[in-house]
Amino acid sequence: MSYQTILTETTGQVGIITLNRPDKLNALSSTLFLEFDEALTEFERNDNVRVLLVTGKGEKAFSAGADIHEMVESQEGARRVGRGAGGDWLEHLAFYRKPTIGAINGLAHGGGALMSSIFDMRIGCERTNFRFLAVTYGRINSTWTLPLIVGLPVAKDLLLTGRVVAAEEAFHIGLLNRLVTAGKLMETAMGTASLIARSDPATVQLIRRILNTSVGMGWQEMLANETRLTAEFLKPPPPSESFKDFLKRNPPDGSSRESA
To answer: How far apart are CA 191 and CA 94, in angstroms?
Structure first.
């Protein structure tokens, strides 16, 4: 499918969405929101895609946030950016079935920071920085994502001040899972995505579901949640299939490939 504001491609079992408005610092327009949501659906329906990777075009920005000019000029743009939870794309990404990784190639401000905070993992470089700007223009977002990443006191700091969080600090507080040089960003992100994609997709997806639905529970409830969902949704293969690589290296008769 051809898009105006994003690029999509598949590499191995990884689906890649690139925000493609570099002249506007990849600002999030209403068209981009719609196309992003369509691309999410496209990759979600593709069983060959096991991991979603999102990045931005260019060297300056992952996304500078909402397209302010459109918000001012268009009621539709303002509605899609400013309403409630933030639009269909937001809930779709938040409850996405497959693992999501953000390769944060530059600044991620406002809506770009919000989008980043929804990914399962974030990998950044020296150009990466974040600003959770909603408070500065009389709006609220990221209260439901950021505390789970950086903790409540730090989330209060970032959400109440709207200050810049540079790459080193972002890595230190856990907002970035990994911090690498710009030249290694996509290689590292793809390596992480490919590593996830090697495992059974049903198991990977269920682990994410268990983790996300266990938020706020006590240990006993978390264990019960894991036990219930595992029994309900996971049908693991027999040990002979699960451990076939181990058994090839360590046959039951005590021999091995090296000694055969």
So the answer is: 23
